[in-house]
Amino acid sequence: MGDEALRYAVLLSRPEQLDFHALAEALARLRSVPVLDAVHEARSCWGILGGHQEEAAARQEAAALAAAGFSTLALPENLVEDLPDAVMAARAELKPEASDFYGAEAAPLRVTAQDVVLLCAVVLKREATQTITTQKDISLGQKALQVGLLMATGLPIGTARMRKEEKKTVPSPELWGVLDIVLKDPARRLRLFSESFDYSCLGADKVYDTLGNLRVLARRLAALWPEAGRNRGLGFILEGKPQREMGYETLDDLEREARWLLTLRTLRA
């Protein structure tokens, strides 16, 4: 069949086994490389390993990882689920029986617990800058000029005149968050950005910062939809774990993880 032959991927079959350090050690033994060389592959796989392989190679890799204690499966890449395109949601009305989400369309999208197959949350860091003002000593030549003026005029010279202001642009990393709600029948995906969502739906639980509100909203939605699948990021929020240890670098990581979790749920169903 040549290029038309099915290509296989290796998937972890138990989400709780997404342990970056343990996975890096297993991959290092499998690849015969130092552990440090396997860290990037472990941290970027998000449950989907060794893609675009021939079946025999994929099954051999799955077996080697299984021998290292991981539950794995090898399957054709065309069985790995794709995500529906994301539709932005700007506000919501949350109710136990059904919640309405509003975006660009005038009509709301009504969501029930039976509609939600996966709820994902992530906190990411992005590079930003800020301008600060610093005080800098004036040069020796300028100081000599100031002293000369003092001697010539007898007028006092304030210490402020011996320093000058300087504006500097410095890095200022900031945190932001995303919530993805994956729906079924039909397949759809709602996306909420922490900075652009109206959190009025939280009522008295609303706090003063957008990231804090995103966490409150994530907990509220998880309680409304207890049967929905949950990603690592949402688990960290629900358990109060440090967000710096979530492990996500970009939205691509979130989407790869969501495809993995969605595939596992589909196979189990």
Strand order of the largest sheet: 4-12-11-8-13
Radius of gyration: 27 Å
Q: Which residues sit in consecutive blocks of at least 5 with pLDDT less than 50?
A: none
Number of strands: 13
Structural class: alpha+beta
What share of the residues lie within helices? 25-40%
Number of helices: 7
SSE ordering: EHHEHEEEEEEEHEEEHEHH
Mean pLDDT: 88
Q: What is the straight-line distance between the termini?
A: 31 Å
Largest sheet: 5 strands, mixed
Q: What share of residues are in beta strands?
A: 25-35%
The best one-word shape is: flat
In short:
The protein is of the alpha+beta class.
Explain what you see:
The protein is α+β, with helices and mostly antiparallel strands. It is 34% helix and 28% strand. The chain has helices at 20-31, 35-45, 55-67, 140-153, 210-224, 232-239, 251-268, and strands at residues 8-12, 48-53, 72-76, 86-88, 91-93, 99-102, 109-111, 116-126, 129-137, 163-171, 174-183, 188-193, 229-230. It has a 5-stranded mixed beta sheet, with helices on both faces. β11 and β12 (188-193) form a beta hairpin. The longest helix is centred in the C-terminal third of the chain and has 18 residues, at 251-268. The model has no long low-confidence stretch (mean pLDDT 88).
